[in-house]
Amino acid sequence: MENIEIINFAASPSLVSRYMLELRNIHIQKDPMRFRANLDRIGQIMAYEISRRLNYHDTEIETPLGKCICQDISDRIVLATILRAGLPFHHGFLNYFDKAENAFVSAYRRYKEKGDSFDVLIEYLASPSIEGKTLILVDPMLATGSSMELAYKALLSKGTPAHIHVASVIASRQSVEYVCTHFPADKTTLWIGAIDDEVNAHSYIVPGLGDAGDLAYGEKE
């Protein structure tokens, strides 16, 4: 059985390690602007690494002094994110893939009356066609994997992508296993800043970093 390729940035120290330190640090993360900037930075680094997996073609351009052959991306990219925590992370990718089409999915947890159990609901989808395109699906926190899967299924109403890049800043080991069993192994690549071992009773990653949406944009009622 074919396995999904997993790229774990924590396996090799880099600038991602520094930005991850600041995202997790309870004192530094109190600055929302810096928190958003660090999500953006990690998004840019991941975008660069993903760009090395894309297809390119030669194109002739004219310079002030003559003509030369340069390479341009052949893949048609759709960059998708889950609102609201995904927005600064998404922006980092968009800084590099500036010609990408964009898709947005609203997914939220609806808790049941008693206990910590909840359903994940999709309420909004704005997306171009993804038929035959490269789908980059980003969300900073991958706790259970169910929101990512539901977002992907919602996007499939717009076509079937040629390849899927799933990108998160922090994932639980449970969610990594979930993605590996619920996404097509032959055309999915999973990019993770770090993998944590635990998910608590509220389905938050431990040690994680807390609620990324609240840290980026303020607490919600």
Describe the SSE topology:
Blueprint: E1 5-8, H1 15-24, H2 32-51, E2 56-63, E3 66-73, E4 77-83, H3 86-96, E5 101-111, E6 118-126, E7 134-138, E8 141-142, H4 146-155, E9 163-172, H5 173-182, E10 188-196, E11 198-199, E12 205-206, H6 212-217
Parallel strand pairs: 1-10, 4-5, 4-7, 7-9, 8-9, 9-10
Antiparallel strand pairs: 2-3, 5-6, 11-12
Helix pairs in contact: 1-2, 2-3
Structural class by sheet pairing and helices: alpha/beta
Total number of distinct structural domains:
1
Distance between the termini: 45 Å
Number of strands: 12
Instruction: Give a short account of the largest sheet.
Output: 8 strands, mixed
Strand content: 25-35%
Mean pLDDT: 93
CATH architecture group name: 3-Layer(aba) Sandwich
Gross morphology:
globular
From the structure above, extract its key features.
8-stranded mixed β-sheet; globular; alpha/beta; 12 strands; Rossmann fold; two-stranded antiparallel ribbon; 221 residues; 6 helices
Structural account:
This protein has about 220 residues and is an alpha/beta fold. It has one domain (about 5-55, about 70-215): Rossmann fold (3-Layer(aba) Sandwich), CATH 3.40.50.2020. The protein is built from six helices and twelve strands. Strands 1, 4, 5, 6, 7, 8, 9 and 10 form an eight-stranded mixed beta sheet that branches. Strands 2-3 form a two-stranded antiparallel sheet. Strands 11-12 form a two-stranded antiparallel ribbon. Helix 2 packs across helix 3. The longest helix has 20 residues, at about 30-50. The radius of gyration is 18 Å and the shape is globular.
